[in-house]
Every structure is written in C-alpha cells, then in structure tokens.
UniProtKB/TrEMBL annotation:
The keyword Cell membrane does not apply. It comes from Tahibacter amnicola. Residues 187-336 form the RsdA/BaiN/AoA(So)-like insert domain. Keywords: FAD, Flavoprotein. Its cofactor is FAD. It holds the Pfam family HI0933_like. This is NAD(P)/FAD-dependent oxidoreductase. The keyword Transcription does not apply. InterPro entries: BaiN-like, BaiN-like_dom_sf, FAD/NAD-bd_sf, RsdA/BaiN/AoA(So)-like_dom, RsdA/BaiN/AoA(So)_Rossmann. Residues 4-389 form the RsdA/BaiN/AoA(So)-like Rossmann fold-like domain.
C-alpha cells in the first residue's frame, strides 16, 4: 500500500507525530508491534501518567549535544499539550515540582491520542511487526507481518531498551545503523542502583525505609527521597542521579539536606548534653538508620563527651555521606535509555536524518534523555510534533 508517511512505533512520540501529520492531510500509517499502543504511557506514573512538567527547559535533558532539544521544545511546550488534555476534558493535578498527572487513569491519555489520530484520518495497525526495510527510488518499502507498505517518509519512533517486558527492543538502533547512522552507547537511566558486599550488608535490612536527601555525583545534584531496597537504593533522588552515575563513581549523600549537620549537633549538645548521639540523630533521621550509622560507623556516647572538632567531623560526614553503588538494576526497571541515535546526524528543527532524505527519528530512540518528572513525555510530544509538521 502507498502512504505519505509510515511511522514505526505507536508510543507517545509516534502517535503525536501521526496526529500532526494527519491534520496536515498526509496519509499516515502507524505500525506497532505490540497488541496495543502506548504501553509505556499506560504504566507510567503508577497508572496515572506524568504526562508533562510545567517547568520544562533544555537543562532538564542529557545529550552529547545539549543544544539539540532546544528548537523542538520551544515550538511545542507543556502549555500546548495541557491545552490538548483540557480539550478532551481530562482531569489532572500537579503532584510536585511541576509534575502533572491524570486525576484518574493514564488510559485517558492513550485514548485521547488515538482519538486525535482517528479524527486526523491516521491508520493504526497493532500486532504488526516490521520484517524488512529497504529504500528504492526515494521511497521506503516496509515489509511487515501484515503486508508491505511504501512511503516517501519513514519515521522511527521505536523508543529505547528500557522495560523490555513492555515490548522495548533495540530495533530503532538497527534501523539507524542500516542507514549509516551512528548510535551512541546506550545504558539504563532513571534506574535503581544496586549495592554489593559489605555495602549491601550494611543497608539491606533497612529495605522500605525512606528519607529526604540531596545526592551528588559528577557535578549533578538532586534533592528528593532516597529509598532503601533489598538490592540497594532507589527513590526519586536516586533515579535522578542514576543518569549521571557511572560504574566506579561514588555518590555523596547529604542525609540532612535542610541544615548544617555540625550546627545541628552543636545545638543539641547544648540542649541535651546527657542524650546519646544515636538518640539525637534519631530525632533528625529515621531511627533505624540513625542506629545503623552509629553501630557501624559513628559510634555513640553522651553528647557532653564530644569535643567540638568531633562534632564538626561527624556533621561533615552526615552532610556528605559516601555510598558506593556496584551497578544498576538495568533495563528491566529503567524508565529510560541514555544514549541512542547521534543527534549530530539529525536536524534539530525537523528530526530528519542528515544522511538519508525522508528518514526521521523522534522520541527516546534519539540521544536525548530527560530528568524524572514528565520531561521525557514532553520530549516525545515536542519531537513528534516537530517531525509531524514536515513529513
């Protein structure tokens, strides 16, 4: 069959691109190998979909080319997507830090996108896998399990490697390489970190305990929750820093991010001279964690027995507690994939390949990765919109 545009991937970016192209009168086919579109949308945000972030800026994204995302993000903002959500009368709320979630179910976002595509005359085929792609005389031929399709424009919106149980594969990277594109090394992002050996032994039985921290690594820092798990550490703060962490690097964790720990201890020494350090720390930290810190590293004695220099040293440790991850939980639980198609070989305004005319890459398959909190969906909407306006 002949189409103007074939889009491989019926996720957030692919559906947005299809909608915009369809509204321009283009004949659009979306090919999705899973049995339904938008599976990652459906599971995101605990089933309520953190569909954008009102504070989105280019600084919320990682890429070997940090300028690449600017054009698309400027032309399709959170306000634009919120307008679409409101048009479909989908209730939403801000959870924290500009993160917008559906009031009820993420199914509403998928239904909205599919309805928009249907209204724009887009054809969507699910349970349809691509077997082969060739290019002949300026047209792409896409052989699928449901027949062969031809189109002048081919859009790769296949996502990354994260959460393979949702159907994620590296197919988009294979297409990129087939047409001469560079694919930058990929790794799991927004992912829990694992501990091993004595590092795991020290914290493993604290599983389920959480606390607010500020975590630092490689010049990046995030203030949010840390959660101890059976395998290591997680929580929003750790997921954020995981995109910056590399094997061999240590984390520095401020366990008392709201105050100078040395000043806190000096004040408690003056007011509670008879209290033990473990008791004082138990007022500022979860008691089980305070007990563990004292049992393994800090020791504990009545506050009156500490010299000022000792309290300053303990305070410095608490504001920069070292932790040594051994790895990550990998793509199985990662929310995103870092790396991907090299953006230096793609137009930042149209998402078109600089190597092959008519070939486009959008969404997570590109080397653009957002922070936790709705930014990756906003990149999907923005990059899909950019391509949809020109395919």
């Amino acid at each position: 069959m002949e189409w103007d545009v074939v889009i491989i991937g019926g996720g957030a970016a692919g559906l947005m691109c299809a909608r915009v192209a369809g509204l321009r009168g283009r004949r659009v086919l979306v090919v999705e190998h899973a049995n339904r579109c938008g599976k990652k949308i459906l599971m995101s945000g605990g089933g309520r979909c953190n569909f954008t972030n009102t504070g989105t800026t280019p600084g919320n994204f990682l890429s070997a080319n940090p300028h690449f995302c600017k054009s698309a993000l400027a032309r399709f903002t959170p306000t634009h997507f919120i307008g679409l959500v409101e048009q479909h009368r989908i209730g939403y709320h801000e959870k924290e830090l500009g993160q917008l979630f559906c009031d009820d179910s993420s199914k509403r976002i998928v239904a909205m996108l599919l309805q928009e595509c249907a209204d724009a005359g887009v054809t969507v085929e699910t349970s349809c896998s691509v077997e082969r792609i060739t290019q002949e005389q300026g047209h792409f031929r896409v052989a699928t399990t449901r027949g062969t399709h031809a189109a002048a424009s081919l859009v790769v919106a296949t996502g990354g490697l994260s959460i393979p149980s949702m159907g994620a594969t590296g197919f988009g990277y294979e297409i990129a390489r087939q047409f001469g594109h560079t694919v930058l090394a990929t790794r799991a992002g927004l992912v829990p970190l694992t501990l091993s050996g004595k590092h795991l032994d020290h914290y493993q039985d604290l599983s389920g305990l959480s606390l607010p921290v500020e975590v630092h690594c490689d010049g990046a820092r995030f203030r949010n929750q840390l959660l101890f798990t059976h395998r290591g550490i997680s929580g929003p703060g750790i997921l954020q820093i995981s995109s910056y962490w590399q094997p061999g690097k240590d984390l520095s964790i401020d366990l008392l991010p709201a105050e100078d720990a040395a000043e806190f201890l000096a004040g408690r020494q003056a007011r509670q001279p008879a209290s033990e350090l473990r008791t004082v720390l138990g007022d500022a930290l979860p008691k089980r964690l305070a007990q563990r810190l004292c049992d393994v590293w800090l020791g504990s004695k009545p506050m009156r027995q500490y010299r000022p220099a000792e309290l300053r040293q303990i305070g410095a440790q608490l504001n920069a507690w070292p932790m040594v991850p051994s790895g990550t939980e990998g793509y199985r639980t990662a929310e995103v994939t870092l790396g991907g198609v090299d953006t230096n070989e793609v137009s930042s305004s149209t998402m078109e390949s600089r190597r092959v005319r008519g070939l486009y890459f959008i969404g997570e398959v590109l080397d653009v990765t957002g922070h936790l909190g709705g930014y990756n969906f906003q990149w999907a909407w923005a990059s899909g919109h950019a391509a949809g306006n020109v395919v």
